[in-house]
Amino acid sequence: MIELLAVKYTPIISFNWSMLMVFITFLVLFFIMKKFFFEKIHNFMEERENKVKTSFENADAANEAAERRLREYNEKLKGADTERREILSDAKNSADENAREIIARAEKNAARIITQAEQEIEREKARALADMREQIAMLSLYAAEKIIGKNLSADDQTAIIDTVIEEASEMRWKI
């Protein structure tokens, strides 16, 4: 029974040559990898990281430039809107002024035409009155010759015409 109680002691990690060889192989491989691969991989990763950072910085700069251009564009649009309103206002004022000038000229022309028409009417009226007086005088002479039955001399005709014209001018002609 004593033998049963005596348990054979075995260490958890035992030293053997194969383990030493694995460890040495691991170290050799590690240094070879470090010399030939890790440095290149590390440089590649740093270069890639720098490219990514540069890309982000460029993207940020492009965004800032786009935002600045957008602000400038909006300011230009506001300026253009203000300028458009000013141009429209100036055009409206100019059109109103032109319209007033045209209306004033038209009114002057109309007044001139009316004045000329009134003057022409007065001339025609005077001409018609003169023609009427002449015709009345001729009719009076003709009637007087028929009544008297003889031809009147030039002095008699002049006397009759003067008398008729005096009487006619004392009367108001209604046309």
Describe this structure in words.
The chain is mainly α and 175 residues long. Helix content is 87%, strand content 0%. The chain is built from three helices and no strands. The protein has helices at residues 2-5, 17-148, 154-170. It is rod-shaped, with a radius of gyration of 65 Å. The N and C termini lie far apart (173 Å). The model has no long low-confidence stretch (mean pLDDT 82).
Shape: rod-shaped
Q: Could you tell me the strand content as a percent range?
A: under 5%
| Unreliably modeled segments | none
Total number of β-strand segments? 0
**What is the helix/strand order?**
HHH
- Portion in helices: over 70%
**Structural class by secondary-structure content:** mainly alpha
What separation lies between the terminal Cα atoms? 173 Å
Treating each run of at least 4 consecutive H or I residues as one helix, how many helices? 3
Mean pLDDT: 82
Largest sheet: none
Radius of gyration over C-alpha positions, nearest whole angstrom: 65 Å
